[in-house]
């Protein structure tokens, strides 16, 4: 039987963690699937672990040269047989009904090429959090949903790679960029959603576990604030002025502040003002530079705990 959905999992040097991801994909209640693990470069350990999984639906591709997460995802898409593609990061896992719920929404979508996402459970040493807190509204630009915040706390808007489901046709038309060091997921969503016939659908319940504490050594390569600034300047035509300002003040600002690059405080602020920053963007920007990271985390954890207590009361 030909699979309807192809799951693509990029990985490198994380054999035990990717095994968990693969088993969660193979345990789906929707069974007309194939699971393609793309090993990003030579990795005998990972290959040996995966060879122990006895399931004909599992395919393993080992790339001869390391190319990064985007190249691995593109290779998986090229090898996929299914009409639909679902991505899963090697350090995340799916709940059993993930694909069943998403394909139901996808097949009922009004859009020719829907992009289906869902909530997820963000798991960290400090506890579990449901993200995102809200979905994209009908009149809201996708760039503002992804890149701008309307509150002081993270997790308001989010579309994470491990909850993406879309047609192979779209991914062939708009592949992931392999030249980026960061923001490959945002970059793809902005370019894809700019095409005719594309729309984003959401499933309300959490369908994946996003292991936030395990994001340190992934296939994606780390970078610094200069890479992020160059990316948003290059893609200024794909984002609104508000999203442009918010990204610089929060995403770029956070990285620069962490590096203590005080000489960049005013230049980044000046660049952000070229867009349309809002009061919340200024508050976040100054907070990132003036309040120590550990203090911000403690405040966020305390207020999140209080909010959860109020909701459960």
UniProtKB/TrEMBL annotation:
Keyword Transferase tagged: yes
Looking at the record's lineage, which domain of life comes first?
Bacteria
Q: What is this protein called?
A: Glycosyl transferase
Give a yes or no for keyword Transferase in this entry. yes
One Gene Ontology term of the molecular function aspect: transferase activity
Keywords, comma-separated and alphabetical: Transferase
Which PANTHER family does the record cross-reference, listed alphabetically?
GLYCOSYLTRANSFERASE, GLYCOSYLTRANSFERASE 2-LIKE DOMAIN-CONTAINING PROTEIN
């Amino acid at each position: 039987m030909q699979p309807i959905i192809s799951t693509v999992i990029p990985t490198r040097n994380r054999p035990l963690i990717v095994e968990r991801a693969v088993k969660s994909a193979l345990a789906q209640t929707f069974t007309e699937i194939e699971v393609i693990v793309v090993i990003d470069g030579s990795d005998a350990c990972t290959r040996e672990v995966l060879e122990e999984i006895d399931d004909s639906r599992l395919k393993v591709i080992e790339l001869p040269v390391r190319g990064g997460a985007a190249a691995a995802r593109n290779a998986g898409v090229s090898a996929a047989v299914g009409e639909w593609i679902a991505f899963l990061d090697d350090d995340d896992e799916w709940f059993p009904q993930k694909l069943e719920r998403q394909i139901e929404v996808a097949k009922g979508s009004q859009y020719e090429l829907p992009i289906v996402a869902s909530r997820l459970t963000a798991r960290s040493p400090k506890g579990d959090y449901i993200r995102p807190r809200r979905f994209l509204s009908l009149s809201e630009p996708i760039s503002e949903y992804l890149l701008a915040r309307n509150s002081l706390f993270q997790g308001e808007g989010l579309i994470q790679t491990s909850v993406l489901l879309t047609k192979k046709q779209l991914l062939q038309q708009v592949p992931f960029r392999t030249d980026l060091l960061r923001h490959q997921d945002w970059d793809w969503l902005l370019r894809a959603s700019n095409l005719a016939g594309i729309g984003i659908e959401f499933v309300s319940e959490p369908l994946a576990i996003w292991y936030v504490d395990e994001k340190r050594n992934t296939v994606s390569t780390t970078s610094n604030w200069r890479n992020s600034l160059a990316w948003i300047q290059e893609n200024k035509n794909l984002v609104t002025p508000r999203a442009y300002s918010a990204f610089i003040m929060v995403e770029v600002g956070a990285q620069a502040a962490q590096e203590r690059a005080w000489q960049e405080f005013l230049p980044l602020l000046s660049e952000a003002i070229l867009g349309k920053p809002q009061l919340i963007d200024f508050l976040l920007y100054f907070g990132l530079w003036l309040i120590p990271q550990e203090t911000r985390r403690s405040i966020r954890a305390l207020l999140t705990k209080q909010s959860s207590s109020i909701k459960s009361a």
